[in-house]
Amino acid sequence: MAKQLPKRDLENVGLGVTGACVALVTFVVAALIFMVAQKGLSAFVKDGVSVVEFFTGTKWDLANTAESGLPYTGALPLIVTSFAVMVLSMLIALPIAIGSAIFAVEIQPKFGSKVFQPLIELLTGIPSVVFGLIGFHVVVGLMKSVFHVSTGLGILPGAIVLAVMILPTMTTLSVDGLRAVPDSYRQGSLALGYTRWQTIWHVVLKSAMPSLMTAVILGMTRAFGETLAVRMVIGGIEAMPTSLLSPASTITTTLTTSMAVYAEGSAQDDVLWALGLLLMGMSLIFILIIHLIGRKGAKARG
Amino acid sequence: MLDQAYSRRQFLGLAGGLASIVGLGLVGCGGSNAADTAAEGSAAAAESVSGEVTYDGASSFQALVEAAAEKFMDANPDVSVSGSGNGSGKGLTAVAAGTVTIGNSDVFAETKLEADQVKNLVDHEVAVVGMGPVVSKNVKVDDLSLEQLKGIFSGQITNWKEVGGDDAKIVVLNRKAGSGTRATFEAAVFGDEAVDFKGDAELDKSGDVQTQMGSTDNAISYLDFSHFDDSKFNAIKVEGVEPKSANVTDDSFKIWATEHMYCSKDADEATTAFLEFMLSDDVQGKLVEEQGFIPVSAMKVVKDASGKVSAK
């Protein structure tokens, strides 16, 4: 063994090593935000893309140029598709997540912790490309045979695949949220003559509301940012979606498929960075909401 | 006992600190590693070739490059050949910027890069690929003219009955912008005209087109010859000419492209050796045809950067 350091030096070593870790992480995050912001903003500042056109224009076509010499950069169809996919997948996943959480915590707690939770955690680890493959081969075929559409690609299959993907995250968080409700709340409610259903609905779910909201937001964040699985079933057409089964393209899918095509520094490349900046801004907003909910929840509990 | 616990913790702390420093250092020098090895490679070239060859670019003939790379590495164990298929545009900008030693492309560098960047690149034409339109099994049309294809892929013709088929809507399956297959197909069908029609879907890969074509009725798409699959869909004639390699060699079948591998003028020993191997009989005589391509030597015509075809 090495010769022992004096205690104070040891403290300093610890401070130095852990401090360096914090400094490194802070630096990486700051550098990342700076780079994306700089690249993304240069689309508007350097190349002269109109901000209003970017958020409200409905024609996205990087391959062709308008009279102004710039490509068509109306990102509204992408933004609309991203939100549509996110909200729809949430609508599908949320009832299932909360329902199974109630079953696993309130009704069959033993089954819930021994069988159900490990099973759900297993689902979390499955890579998204696997979901995409299943979506491309199964869900798309299902759409074709159920709705009699030509390609079966679009927002609906995207939302279904995403719903399965965000389900484990949301279920796990909902289970944790329900479990964190103190037992004294349930006992008090039952002692006042509430039935089990009334206890669950009026007491448990209500006091677990902040954690359930966190589950929703985290699920939404994942749905918003997921790329690969969606890309395989959405159809990849950058136009305003006219129905749930017309091919469309989300911000992330457009970003990944176009990134390889355009040379660095071109107006097209800068506009793609602007899309990246938009995504980053959205996730910052989501995280902010989670923090606000957490603070409000803490205040409500006292 | 207490002493020992103390020193163990100390040891762990130090080791952790060291590990993180070493880790950072490695990340820091990662970029220059390739250059070092390459320099060593040319120094030791007198005996045998060694070094690192990296490529990026078109995914359409990446399988051919990978297969050739494996054979090349068997013969030259000191060389490593590796890379990825991120699209022709990426490959060309990467080789021009020097981040890879070889850029693979379906199109001439002149179409994607500035003239002064092209000046420093050397072109190697390694294979020719033919591409043709494919239609769903239920479609009765088996021959389309270039004019009709133009109508279909620009959205002018939307019903199969307009081109001699049943009364059904045409489902157009496109490839993503940036796909070399799409670029080749559009160059042959549209020439210089800009296309502003997206179709019913834009798919990522030739494999995705195969899957979708197999399960979609009334659809049309395009694929290179090696991805044709008679059990799933029909490859049709263009201007009455069958989509066959023999018809590509004399330009009677019009939709084809030359696969290019670009390296910089001052490429290192390993890179030039690998490119020579790509053009050698080992690859041209056997591997190229095995992978579904047409050897350049079999061609009776050549296509230049502006798309003009002339006899060899």
Number of strands of chain A: 2
Q: Give, in order, the helices and strands of chain B.
A: HEHEHEHEEHEHEHEEEHEHHEE
Rg of chain B from C-alpha positions?
A: 25 Å
Q: How would the global form of chain A be characterised?
A: globular
- What is the first-to-last residue Cα distance of chain B? 86 Å
Descriptors:
heterodimer, A: 302 residues, mainly alpha, two-stranded antiparallel sheet, B: alpha/beta, D-Maltodextrin-Binding Protein, domain 2, 9-stranded mixed beta sheet, two-stranded parallel ribbon, 10 helices, elongated
Describe the 3D structure.
The complex is a heterodimer of chains A (302) and B (312). Chain A is built from 12 helices and 2 strands. With 302 residues, chain A is mostly helical. A two-stranded antiparallel sheet of chain A has the order 1-2. Chain B has 312 residues and is an alpha/beta fold. Chain B is built from 10 helices and 13 strands. In chain B, strands 1, 2, 3, 4, 6, 7, 8, 9 and 11 form a 9-stranded mixed β-sheet that branches. In chain B, strand 6 (171-175), helix 6 and strand 7 (201-203) form a beta-alpha-beta unit. The radius of gyration of chain B is 25 Å and the shape is elongated.
Question: Summary?
Answer:
The complex is a heterodimer of chains A (302) and B (312). Chain A is mostly helical and 302 residues long. Chain A contains twelve helices and two strands; from the N terminus they run H-H-E-E-H-H-H-H-H-H-H-H-H-H.
Give the secondary structure arrangement, pairings included.
The complex is a heterodimer of chains A (302) and B (312).
Chain A: H1 7-45, H2 51-56, E1 60-65, E2 71-73, H3 76-107, H4 109-124, H5 128-147, H6 155-179, H7 183-191, H8 196-207, H9 209-225, H10 228-233, H11 251-259, H12 267-301
Antiparallel strand pairs in A: 1-2
Helix pairs in contact in A: 1-12, 3-4, 3-6, 3-9, 4-6, 5-6, 6-9, 7-8, 9-12, 11-12
Chain B: H1 2-43, E1 51-57, H2 62-75, E2 79-84, H3 88-97, E3 102-105, H4 115-118, E4 121-136, E5 143-144, H5 146-153, E6 171-175, H6 180-190, E7 201-203, H7 206-215, E8 219-224, E9 233-235, E10 237-238, H8 245-249, E11 256-264, H9 269-279, H10 281-290, E12 301-303, E13 309-311
Parallel strand pairs in B: 1-2, 1-3, 5-10, 6-7, 6-8
Antiparallel strand pairs in B: 3-11, 4-8, 4-9, 4-11, 12-13
